[in-house]
Amino acid sequence: MKEEKLVERVRRIIHTKQYSIRTEKAYVYWITYLIKFHGNRHP
After folding, report:
1. Closest to 14 measured CA to CA, from 2, 28, 31
2. Which residues 6+ apart lie within 8 Å of 32 measured at CB?
3. Residue boundaries of the structural domains of the chain
4. 8: CB partners within 8 A, 6+ apart
5. Any residues with CB less than 8 A from the CB of 15 and at least 6 apart, and which?
6. Cα(40)–Cα(18) distance, rounded to whole angstroms?
7. pTM of whole model > 0.85?
8. Residue 30's closest CA among 43, 2, 17?
9. What is the chain's Cα-based Rg?
């Protein structure tokens, strides 16, 4: 089984909890920003 990436997992959970699309976009934006800030490595 293929391992889910963090952003995909967050999106799936947000949909499950029925959060708004704007909330999803904000969460994905900040997660992506922090990943890039740390140079694609675990902080």
Report:
1. 28
2. 7
3. 6-37
4. none
5. 24
6. 29
7. no
8. 43
9. 11
